[in-house]
Amino acid sequence: MATSIPSTVGLLITAMTLAGAATAPPAAAAPGHAPLQRALGRAVADGGAPGMVAEVRDRRGRWFGSAGVADLRTGRKRQPQERFRIGSAAKPFTATVVLQLAGEGKLSLDDTVDKWLPGLVKGNGNDGGAITIRHLLNHTSGIFNYGNDQEEFAKLSGPAWLEHRYDVYTPERLVRIGLRNPRSFETPGDGFVYSNTGYILAGMIVEKVTGRTLAGEIERRIVRPLGLTGTYLPGRETRIRGPHPRHYSTLFAAEPDAKVYDVTDQSATTGWAAGGVVSTAGDLHRFAGALLRGRLLRPAQQREMFTMVKTGIKMPDGTWKDTWITGTTYGTGVFSWELSCGVQVWGIGGAITGGFSFAMGTRDAKHMIATNVTIDRYAGYNSLDMSKTVMEAEFCPSGSRTRSK
């Protein structure tokens, strides 16, 4: 499921599997991006990534680099135009549609969930009359993340995933899974706990307000206006359209020699509004850049998108507990991330069974990077660390990546 990240999971791929990928020659590095190319190579040779790409856009133009392969079986190289599953980088697509509807006066972020989905959110301390659309979009609703439900996670991790990879989930079913668990904190707005359930509800509200599908609204409001060529929200189809790399996973296995599975074909209905979108590096650049520059939203809604909250909760004893990625703040679908050298980048990102994807950059979008690694690995040298290391190779001055504020 999208963005369900346990803290202790195996991550190593066998040396036999990696041999071809690790020795594949890297793409030529343009001047000024040699550290980034080296970081991509280390993600493959040292980190166990089958393949990783990064595309940079700055004042010098566009640069694309890759390491490893798109297909471990054939050795096919990765290409700039490839499509891949972007996991929770789908959330800003949903958030943008919601904010556009707010700008058109068709809803308000202060509307309660009950106004649009009466009686749906209840039980286990949840009250749809007290939770607003804003709470859904900035993860302050307190509604449990369905991706962390123990029963469902048992079906969608390990060998059981292979039996359930094509299961179809309706949005209503995903919400019910989340609501059968206790809330993350008592009062909406009093904390931040990442919740895919909130974004499923936001997608349902879009469809209720417009009378059209979320996929259609994303196409009409974002994909066509920005000229995105490889971005779409799948329905029940399980294959990625057009050219794409294979996606790989250890299915959350903890053993150092965990088997790697090809997970490319899978149901996107487990993510939908929270994590179901397919895109490309170039499209992520264009979309994230448009968000940062305010090209998709009216001024009031642009301010809403970048009204940031700290990603954690205050404990009963007054101490602070991070509940997401350390060094981040979150808006509505977008987030900021302080790198270890103190540089702050802004943008979008996500994980899904089969990979991690990001599009991050300076707040003015003049220096951007989009990355994709085609494996989801957790604990130790994991896919999140790989992605951060690649970003730091681009944004942190040489030799400063270990300094923190």
Percent of residues in helices: 25-40%
Number of helices: 14
End-to-end distance: 34 Å
- Low-pLDDT segments: 1-30, 401-405
CATH architecture: 3-Layer(aba) Sandwich
Question: Would you tell me which CATH topology applies?
Answer: Beta-lactamase
From the alpha carbons, calculate the radius of gyration and give it in angstroms.
20 Å
Give the overall form.
Answer: globular
SS class:
alpha+beta
Largest sheet: 8 strands, antiparallel
Integer count of domains: 1
Give the strand order, joined by hyphens, for the main sheet: 2-1-16-15-14-13-12-9
CATH class: Alpha Beta
Number of strands: 17
Overall pLDDT score: 90
Report on the architecture of this protein:
The chain is α+β, with helices and mostly antiparallel strands and 405 residues long. The protein has one domain (15-395): Beta-lactamase. The protein contains 14 helices and 17 strands. The protein has helices at residues 15-23, 34-45, 91-103, 113-116, 133-137, 150-155, 160-164, 171-179, 196-210, 214-226, 272-275, 281-293, 299-305, 383-395, and strands at residues 51-58, 61-68, 83-85, 122-123, 126-127, 248-249, 261-262, 278-280, 309-310, 312-314, 320-322, 328-330, 335-338, 344-352, 355-361, 368-373, 375-376. Helix 2 runs antiparallel to helix 14 (383-395).
